[in-house]
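Key result, reporting period 2: structure in, sequence out.
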């Protein structure tokens, strides 16, 4: 059988609906085109449904093996811009990612739970990213934190990370301060927009659902496909969509909180060494050097996250995380 085709200009969605009521799950792969572990894991899962090895017992499950087909065809992170930033419907779409968003956002809003499967550039172990605790704040109001936490603890990786949108909001403020005046170019307008940090999971939460980004490993690690596949199977069981035993929650988890994002400003900005994601940093340790010779040092003890030596100037270069005091709820109801 030939491999599935994922032509640009289309969003290929596979949906299974049980005749018994239950939660509505959606699983995304290749939101970034060079992150294919989710694609392979979804294709494997769909083959099991097709063969009868898996049966949907209740609810519905939608799978999007390739969310950004243009980026996937080019084997690169973006088509024309980062789909996982500024995600929202647009009455006047300007690029490939705007057009995808106009199809993807209504699709997300039809579901209760999102599992978004990614991988990363540098060495490091897999981890899950969750949203904020329940709150009524202006930035990311939320009311399903316990259910989200319980799912995250069953996906496999021991490391869980919070603090995404607050970190991005701070990054936007820093970009505006550097700009000094109102940006005019589209790229600058996007990464200084207050909604710059809104991607698939943030949009899902804004529509009343809950969502987890699972970073399954390094792009080139074949084991990332297996991490993604096991996470899909664990999610189906945890939500009761299939009649299989639920995975027990991890009790040895580590919870970190993102606190800062640092942009690359010049092509000659460089790291002082090759960093791995979540490599520990000591307060005062040198991380990188700017083109003008300025040294960037860790403010406190913590961890470097998503170091990307190939980041484009004006885009995120690396993140800094600290340990979180938040307590997770392993036994919350699925929904």
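The corresponding designed sequence is given below.
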């Amino acid at each position: 059988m030939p491999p599935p085709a994922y032509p640009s200009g289309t969003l290929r969605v596979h949906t299974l609906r049980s005749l018994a009521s239950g939660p509505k799950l959606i699983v995304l792969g290749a939101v970034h085109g060079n992150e294919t572990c989710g694609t392979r894991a979804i294709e494997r899962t769909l083959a099991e449904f097709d063969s009868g090895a898996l049966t949907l017992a209740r609810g519905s499950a939608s799978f999007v093996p390739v969310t950004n087909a243009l980026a996937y065809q080019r084997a690169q992170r973006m088509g024309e811009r980062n789909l996982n930033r500024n995600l929202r419907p647009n009455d006047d779409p300007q690029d490939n990612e705007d057009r995808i968003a106009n199809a993807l956002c209504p699709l997300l809003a039809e579901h209760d739970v999102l599992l978004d499967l990614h991988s990363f550039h540098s060495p490091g172990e897999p981890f899950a990213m969750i949203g904020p605790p329940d709150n009524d704040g202006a930035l990311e109001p939320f009311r399903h934190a316990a259910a989200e936490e319980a799912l995250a603890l069953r996906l496999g990786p021991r490391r869980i990370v919070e603090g995404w949108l607050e970190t991005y909001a701070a990054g936007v403020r820093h970009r505006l301060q550097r700009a000094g005046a109102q940006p005019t170019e589209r790229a600058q307008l996007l990464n200084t927009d207050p909604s710059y940090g809104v991607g698939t999971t943030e949009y899902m939460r804004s529509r009343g659902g809950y969502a987890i980004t699972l970073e399954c490993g390094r792009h080139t690690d074949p084991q990332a496909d297996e991490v993604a596949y096991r996470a899909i199977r664990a999610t189906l069981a945890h939500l009761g969509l299939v009649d299989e035993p639920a995975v027990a929650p991890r009790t040895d988890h580590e919870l970190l909180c993102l606190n800062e994002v640092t942009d690359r400003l010049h092509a000659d900005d460089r790291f002082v060494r090759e960093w791995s994601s979540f490599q520990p940093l000591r307060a005062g340790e040198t991380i990188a050097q700017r083109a003008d010779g300025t040294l960037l040092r860790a403010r406190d003890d913590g961890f470097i996250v998503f170091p990307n030596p190939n980041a484009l100037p004006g885009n995120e270069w690396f993140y800094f995380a600290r340990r979180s005091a938040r307590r997770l709820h392993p036994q919350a109801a699925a929904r």
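Residues 256-323 form a domain with the OB fold (Dihydrolipoamide Acetyltransferase, E2P) fold (CATH 2.40.50.630). The chain has two domains: 14-252, 256-323. This case is discussed further under Risks and Mitigation.
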